[in-house]
Amino acid sequence: MDEYITVYASESGERIDALLAHSVEGLSRSAAQRLIESASVLLDGVPVRKNYRCKGDECFDVYIPEPDAAEPLPQEIPLDVVYEDDDVIVVNKARGMVVHPAPGHPDGTLVNALMYRCGDSLSGIGGEKRPGIVHRIDKDTSGLIIAAKNDFSHLALSAQLSGHSLYREYLAVIRGGMREDSGTVDAPIGRHRTDRKRMAVTQTNSRPAVTHWSVVERYRGYTLIKCVLETGRTHQIRVHMAYIGHPLLGDGLYGAPCPDKGLEGQCLHASALHFKHPRSDEDIVLNAPLPEYFQTVLSKLGNPVE
Q1: In angstroms, what CA-CA distances link 211 with 233, 247, 250, 277?
Q2: Which of 31, 109, 122, 151 has its CA at 20 to 30 Å from residue 79's CA atom?
Q3: Is residue 1 predicted with pLDDT exceeding 70?
Q4: Measured at the alpha carbon of residue 159, what is the angle toward residues 158 and 162, in degrees to the nearest 5?
């Protein structure tokens, strides 16, 4: 599907192609120039010139045609399978693995690995690029993710997801100490106004988002927390924790721009997944132990404090 987006320029003097390149995920500067040359970038309804310099507080309408991407191919990639039957498969995803093909990541994804393991049995509801995928977790988030092997299971699991009965629990290390032992962040999330690579808490073009958190351990300058998602917005835990002043350790997008404790990428692990089996209605309760990178981070934090 073709995409129509809005890009905001908050500062003056920046070239329009540079603005697009750092504001639109996966868009290079040369690709931005091609969009401008094809009259796909408009200011007040008028195509802009490729050498146009922003004046600040401007709003550009950008038309991005759907790329002619090839279908993902099966690839023999090792998977840590936690549960599998004829209807569903649950994988403990390694940190650094992308869930489905996207700009900059055409292969080597979880989808490629699932296609090799499951063949043609994956559900088709997610489309050719996302067969079987019911929900997603970020590239640098490790842990449990469920995929459907047929459309019946996909629909049933999606209904549980939207009805908040598919339980998803995460462990995260955040910067700073929490005053309370638990709490809830209820704040809508939408695309960031000026940086298209980021999400943000906003009332504009947003969707409801609710994250429940509780303290597991306290360290000097950091806290290990458990998060339970009531909704599933893009980057939800990362955005919500940054919003309340406690970005995730290692999260360069929403927190400190430099590596923290030697970690590049958020310290976030999908540790538990509970759902009703789509066919038998049996309660499936799954857990994934902390991966090595997470344990290494905790060891660097020292002993917990009271």
Answers
A1: 10, 14, 20, 24
A2: 151
A3: no
A4: 85
- Enter the pTM of the model: 0.78
For residue range 64-117, list pLDDT tens digits in order. 765 555 678 899 999 999 999 999 999 999 999 999 887 677 889 999 999 999
State the chain's mean pLDDT as an integer. 89
Distance CA 301, CA 221 (A): 9
Cβ-contact 64, 2 below 8 angstroms? yes
Long-range contacts, 162-167 (Cβ 8 Å, 24+): 164/230, 164/231, 165/275, 165/276, 166/135, 166/273, 166/274, 166/275, 167/228, 167/272, 167/273, 167/274, 167/275
Q: Report how far residue 147's alpha carbon sits from residue 134's, in angstroms, rounded to the nearest whole number.
A: 6
In whole angstroms, what is the distance from residue 22 CA to residue 18 CA?
6
Q: Which of 138, 140, 251, 260 is catalytic?
A: 138
Instruction: Look at residues 163, 183, 210 and tell me which one is the last residue of a structural domain.
Output: 163
Q: Are residues 225 and 306 in the same domain?
A: yes
Q: Are residues 189 and 273 in the same domain?
A: yes
- The domain containing residue 29 runs over which residues? 3-64
User: What percent of the chain shows pLDDT beyond 70?
Assistant: 94
Between CA 84 and CA 153, with CA 212 as vertex, the angle to 5 degrees is 25
- Examine the residue annotation and report whether 138 is marked as an active-site residue of this protein: yes
What is the percent of the chain with per-residue pLDDT over 90, rounded to a whole number? 57
Same domain, 73 and 154: yes
Q: Which two tokens stand for residue 290?
A: 């902390």
What contacts 285, CB < 8 A, 6 or more positions away? Answer: 272, 274
Q: How many domains does the chain have?
A: 3
* Same structural domain, 270 and 304: yes
Same domain, 158 and 177: no
Taking 70 as the threshold, does the pLDDT of residue 273 lie above it? yes
